[in-house]
Amino acid sequence: MVEFQTLQEIARAARATLGQNAWDYLTGGGESETTLKRNRLGLDSIGLRQHVCRDVTQIDASTELLGQTLRLPVCTAPMGSLELLEPVGAEGVVRAADEFGVTAFVSSLTKPEIEEMAPKTNRPMVYQIYVRGDDAWVAKFVKRAVDAGCNAVCFTVDLALYGRRERDMMKRYRPPTRQAGDLAAFRFQTAWNWDNVKRFKDAHDIPLIIKGIATAEDAETAVELGVDVVYVSNHGGRQLDHGCATIDVLAEVAAAVGGKAKIMIDGGFMRGTDVVKAIALGAHAVGLGKLIGMGLAADGQHGVVRTLEILEEEITTTLGLMGVTRLDQLDPGFLRPAPPVVEPDLLSPYPFIDFTDKGY
Q1: What is the reported pTM?
Q2: Rounded to an integer, what is the distance from CA 218 to the centroid of its chain?
């Protein structure tokens, strides 16, 4: 097989590999998918301001997060049911993140279990937890994370109710994460609130990440309670329909955090230029979900590594052409509003691939 040279080829290989249910699970959103499309529209509506005649022979795109050096300012975002995309499931992503040099977020709703993956990586993972029990239940999961060598835990909080994913509903398809047993315990997620966050911080020393922040008000509350990483997310457009693009709320969240916590973001990031825009607006790292899922579907662990390698080429090229050699040189002055040139969609960053067989 010829080595992948572009992210577009990886997306094409993923589409060719996956059946319709798995493809829709990976690429779909909630209801009309307006939030999903706004994620892309927000990123596509930002232009890069280029500075020239600067020495860019040495470019360093690495960063620090939670005491770890990341080769790129990205992490693999937590995704449930990765085994739908490739039999190795989350293990392929964890091993690829270790091989390349970034942090993997592992979902509590994917396979294999974190204990099985811990011996197969040299880098600390982050364990992402969907709450399916009381504080004692949470404590057991935290112990599992600590015993597995994780350097932080992450709670996803934009899932108080399950979003209506009509691509799946219209086919009467229910992915593994939405089976009856899971639904019975879902009431704990529905009831989880800021008091739970406070009790967690009072009871545990491990760093805490709150994923699903979309407003300055919630960012301020998170910082007041001692949250270590504020993670801006709208669940990839899979939950609240007609929500705002994550990139559009990043600046207000960064201002509210005021340097008191690290900031992550995800939501439609499919290109190196997308990552650069987020760093310029105040993010410390970007979570990659659907893009990493495509790499996994395309060629397992190697496909994820190759996805990250290509992304590194894109980020390094973008920085150099902008006259930048380090991420800390970026700021909002490198950006300006710009009209999008294509109709926004998750796959619109890949215009040279024909995705006509979308099934919707």
Answers
A1: 0.96
A2: 19
